[in-house]
């Protein structure tokens, strides 16, 4: 059985939760150290961290599926 963790609040990065830390490292495609530095500098809000990192796109898993693909 596969377990895929998704944070409860997709607009906030909580580095104290190991599952959430792993999730954001994977989603933002950055190292743990770079993510920790970004959160320290920009705060825990995803938009601020993305701006700090120079990431302009939202992670694919945080975007809702288009209506025509939902069932």
Total of helices: 3
How many DSSP E strands? 0
In terms of per-residue confidence, which ranges show pLDDT below 50 for 5 or more consecutive residues? none
Radius of gyration: 13 Å
Summarize the biggest pleated sheet. none
Number of domains: 1
SSE sequence, one letter per element: HHH
What's the rounded overall pLDDT mean?
84
Task: Report the span from N to C terminus.
Answer: 23 Å
How much of the sequence is in beta strands?
under 5%
Helix content: 40-55%
Content-based structural category: mainly alpha
Shape: globular
What does this structure look like?
The protein has 71 residues and is an all-alpha fold. The protein has one domain. It has 3 helices and no strands. It has helices at residues 18-28, 32-42, 46-53. It is globular, with a radius of gyration of 13 Å.
Q: Which key features would you list for this structure?
A:
71 residues, mainly alpha, 3 helices, 42% helix
Topology:
Layout (H helix, E strand, L loop, with lengths): L17 H11 L3 H11 L3 H8 L18
Helix pairs in contact: 2-3
């Amino acid at each position: 059985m596969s377990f895929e963790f998704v944070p409860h609040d997709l607009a906030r990065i909580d580095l104290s939760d190991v599952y959430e830390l792993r999730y954001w490292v994977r989603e933002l495609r950055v190292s743990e150290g770079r993510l920790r530095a970004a959160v320290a500098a920009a705060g825990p809000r995803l938009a601020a961290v993305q701006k700090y990192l120079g990431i302009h796109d939202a992670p694919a898993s945080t975007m809702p599926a288009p209506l025509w693909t939902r069932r």
